[in-house]
């Protein structure tokens, strides 16, 4: 019986209907009556009156409202990237298709319209960045070319929206990519593959150190007298799982329970009952035969335990309490992606006797289940994560070729059939890649669309080989997945924070268009509210705007068309007019973190890797020989003489701030040694009367410049051509030197009016800002280049045979031979695509991934064989 009156029950039921309809609109289609019948058994919460909560509230309602408020405020997003292959070599191209969805139902997201895809080096430095416009349906695609000179190693590919930054980088899409030294060093050698060890030694450093072993009591704590399950996770210094075995010991070094050993990627579990007065540790034997001792968490004299067992179609949950005072009833709350069900409270005793619940999986969507035990004061006492997998994948993609074997340069017709779990056709969009099977299977347990959306996107930290848990589900993989959640369980919210008060307002906006955002700070990095900003765009259009920072010192300029890179100069001032401020643009999420692990066995690659490297080198050699424009890296200039000359400027001839290295003007003004330049007056005013033939007219900040017998000069700021409006905003204290090119000197810049080059101190890589009381460390000036939307390149698709004329004689593609980020099934759930085989023979694998409009992920593969040319 419910501990609620009829009116309260009606109100409570309506509340649950609203919550369910808010997050699961399919309930609307079922009808309210049917939903009420379905929900009624879940509300059998006898004993709620024992919980201490505000008047007329019950605990489940309060907790559900907090969760609903959290998701309504945070509106979390997820993004997944389908790649053409799991590993790459230097000189190759990463092709990707992005799926942006809401984190609750995994439906195509309409919140953010801009996606950032970044590639970070092994030291987590930014290598490449793509700014992508998200199309309707949450889809976008792009590519990243890996330069021949790129060092081999483990790189990090990540994707995120500005809105996702509110929850931190733990919930970005992140994938570690192995980039092997595949590009040949000498293309004139006919494709001879140099040894792997010819790459720079600094490219890979062996990471050594003690294996890290951590222990995680199920539910959270070890409690005296309560049976405990302890998960453990062993990681090598590289971050990968380490094989271990061990024995639990007590304070007297006596064995406790049976010996244990890791089962999968350094993870496993053992059971024992903690005793009073004991401090436990584990003696662990590592793979090299050495041993080490690792402590377990301290044993608590009293508290709760929570034990979850996967019984197939349900979870059997057991709770206990050990203590000196009666604990009162305990409430079990379950949550899967914001979908909450509260189960009937159970009366706990203080002698450790168990109470239990039987939780059916069919009541939840697939994903990570969050079990939380609350005491009578509605305080969380124990937590446990488990995985809900309701049957096989709901979306099935079958790929079938029209033949099993093909010849070189032969047309392939492949059909795709997409159905749901019951075999009914599904209309959806998906992406597909066809790659050499050896390359396509080098990392068979890499992240895929199902493992990402259902598992890794809701866990913090690196998950090794996530595809293992989904590719071929067995009792063994289910046990390994449970070990993972026992040891690496982490979720989007923590009850303590959720119950403490309202969710903080988001710091980052959900972007609908390109914008230049940032903050203006003072000397101590404190934000300056109401700072005056001057915005001067010199490319691709000319415009001047003004703005004011908000109460947090933040600013935002919106309205870029995204067709080209925008060059913007920002000048910040205090309300008093002072320029001792710093303008800090928001250039994306930070790239901090420990270095990524090195490549495994780089000096002695496995046969599969060695074969892949051979194919990759052959492909690159052919590309560079047959497509010189595409492979152009260096240009040799003939009949050009470079003569030495006296260093006329304080700016070195090869300084990176020069538009054309080596070109130095005859007229140089050294601002660094000019006392008047430290007064902060405008640059043009300082130049007036100091350079023969230079005429300055007007008053700051609307001054114009002419060079006698030449006209209006070009203006170059730290190697970037700008307008005079930009120079008018620069304070002389921020300038190191100015060079004036007159007459024939300026011809190299393509103008007839001369040129004036300004070199700022802060653009000098060796510049160190002054410190100490009264020093002016910033003029509040900043030049920013804001990239436009990236236009994805078209994947090369040659055609052979009649009636095609001038078909290429050779096709160097030996790895990925087909890539299509956007295929659409018809009303029968069918689609077909064609492509041609290339010069390479062997087995090729087609891989398709997609997502339905209702958020169901799917993946399918198919294979073909290409016979060698006779």
TrEMBL record:
This is TonB-dependent receptor plug domain-containing protein. InterPro entries: CarboxyPept-like_regulatory, Plug_dom, Plug_dom_sf. Residues 577-601 are annotated as: Disordered. It comes from Hymenobacter setariae. SUPFAM superfamilies: Carboxypeptidase regulatory domain-like (SSF49464), Porins (SSF56935). Residues 681-753 form the TonB-dependent receptor plug domain.
């Amino acid at each position: 019986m419910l501990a609620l009156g009829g009116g309260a029950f009606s109100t409570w039921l309506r509340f649950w209907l609203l919550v369910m309809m808010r997050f699961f609109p399919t309930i609307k289609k079922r009808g309210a009556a049917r939903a009420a019948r379905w929900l009624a058994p879940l509300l059998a919460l006898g004993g709620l009156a024992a919980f201490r909560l505000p008047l007329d509230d019950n605990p489940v309602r309060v907790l559900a409202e907090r969760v609903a408020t959290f998701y309504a405020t945070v509106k979390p997003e997820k993004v997944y990237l389908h790649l053409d292959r799991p590993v790459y070599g230097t000189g190759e191209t990463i092709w990707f298709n992005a799926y942006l969805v809401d984190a609750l139902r995994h439906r195509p997201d309409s919140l953010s319209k801009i996606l950032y895809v970044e590639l970070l080096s092994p030291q987590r430095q930014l290598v490449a960045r793509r700014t992508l416009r998200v199309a309707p349906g949450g889809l976008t695609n792009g590519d990243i070319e890996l330069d021949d000179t790129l060092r081999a190693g483990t790189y990090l590919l990540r994707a995120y929206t500005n809105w996702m930054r509110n929850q931190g980088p733990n919930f970005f899409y992140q994938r570690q990519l192995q980039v092997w030294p595949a590009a040949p060093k000498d293309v004139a050698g006919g494709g001879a593959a140099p040894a792997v060890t010819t790459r720079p030694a600094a490219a890979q450093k062996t990471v050594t150190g003690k294996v890290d072993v951590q222990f995680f009591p199920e539910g959270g704590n070890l409690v005296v007298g309560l049976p405990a399950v302890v998960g453990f996770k062993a990681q090598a210094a590289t971050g990968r799982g380490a094989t271990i075995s061990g024995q639990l010991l007590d304070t007297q070094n006596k064995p406790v329970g049976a010996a244990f050993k890791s089962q999968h990627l350094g993870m496993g579990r053992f059971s024992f009952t903690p005793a009073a007065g004991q401090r436990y540790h584990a003696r662990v034997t590592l793979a090299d035969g050495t041993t080490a001792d690792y402590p377990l968490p301290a044993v608590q004299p009293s508290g709760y335990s929570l034990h979850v067992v996967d019984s197939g179609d349900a979870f059997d949950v057991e709770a206990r309490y050990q203590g000196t005072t009666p604990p009162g009833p305990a409430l079990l709350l379950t949550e899967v992606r914001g979908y909450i069900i509260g189960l009937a409270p159970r009366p706990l005793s203080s002698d450790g006797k168990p109470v239990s619940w039987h939780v059916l999986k069919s009541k939840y969507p697939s994903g990570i289940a969050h079990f939380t035990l609350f005491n009578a004061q509605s305080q969380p006492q124990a937590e446990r994560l488990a995985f809900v997998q309701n049957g096989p994948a709901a979306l099935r993609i079958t790929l079938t070729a029209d033949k099993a074997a093909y010849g070189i340069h032969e047309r392939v017709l492949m059909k795709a059939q997409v159905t749901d779990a019951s075999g009914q056709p599904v209309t959806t969009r998906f992406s597909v890649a066809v790659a050499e099977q050896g390359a396509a299977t080098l990392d068979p347990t890499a992240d895929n669309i199902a493992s990402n959306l259902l598992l890794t996107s809701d866990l913090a930290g690196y998950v090794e080989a996530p595809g293992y848990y989904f590719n071929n589900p067995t009792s063994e993989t289910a046990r390994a997945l449970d070990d993972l959640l026992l040891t690496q369980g982490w979720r989007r919210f923590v009850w303590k924070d959720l119950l403490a008060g309202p969710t903080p307002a988001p710091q980052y906006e959900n972007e609908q268009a390109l914008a230049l955002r940032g903050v203006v700070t003072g000397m101590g990095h404190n934000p300056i509210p109401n700072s005056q900003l001057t915005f001067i765009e010199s490319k691709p259009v000319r415009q001047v705007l003004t703005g004011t920072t908000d109460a947090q010192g933040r600013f935002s300029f919106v309205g870029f068309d995204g067709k080209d890179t925008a060059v913007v100069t920002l000048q910040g001032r205090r309300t008093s007019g002072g320029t001792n401020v710093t303008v800090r643009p928001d250039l994306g999420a930070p790239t901090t973190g420990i270095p990524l692990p090195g490549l495994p066995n780089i000096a002695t690659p496995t046969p599969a890797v060695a074969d892949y490297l051979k194919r990759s080198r052959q492909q690159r050699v052919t590309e560079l020989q047959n497509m010189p424009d595409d492979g152009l890296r260096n240009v040799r200039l003939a009949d050009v003489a470079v003569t030495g000359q006296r260093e006329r400027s304080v700016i070195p001839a090869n300084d990176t701030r020069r538009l054309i290295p080596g070109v130095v003007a005859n007229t140089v003004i050294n601002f660094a040694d000019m006392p008047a330049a430290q007064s902060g007056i405008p640059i043009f005013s300082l130049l007036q009367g100091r350079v023969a033939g230079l005429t300055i007219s007007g008053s700051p900040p609307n001054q114009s410049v002419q060079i006698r017998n030449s006209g209006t000069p070009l203006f170059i700021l730290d190697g970037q051509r700008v307008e005079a409006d930009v120079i008018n905003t620069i304070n002389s204290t921020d300038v190191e030197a100015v060079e004036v090119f007159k007459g024939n000197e300026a011809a190299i810049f393509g103008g007839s009016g001369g040129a004036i080059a300004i070199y700022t101190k802060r653009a000098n890589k060796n510049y160190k800002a002054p410190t100490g009381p009264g020093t002016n460390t910033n003029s509040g000036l900043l030049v920013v280049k804001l990239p436009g939307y990236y236009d994805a390149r078209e994947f090369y698709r040659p055609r052979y045979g009649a009636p095609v004329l001038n078909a290429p004689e050779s096709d160097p593609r030996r790895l990925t031979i087909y890539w299509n980020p956007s295929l659409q099934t018809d009303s029968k759930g069918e689609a077909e695509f064609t492509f041609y085989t290339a010069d390479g023979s062997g087995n090729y694998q087609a891989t398709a991934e997609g997502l339905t409009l209702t958020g169901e992920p799917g993946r399918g593969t198919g294979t073909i064989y290409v016979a060698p040319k006779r």
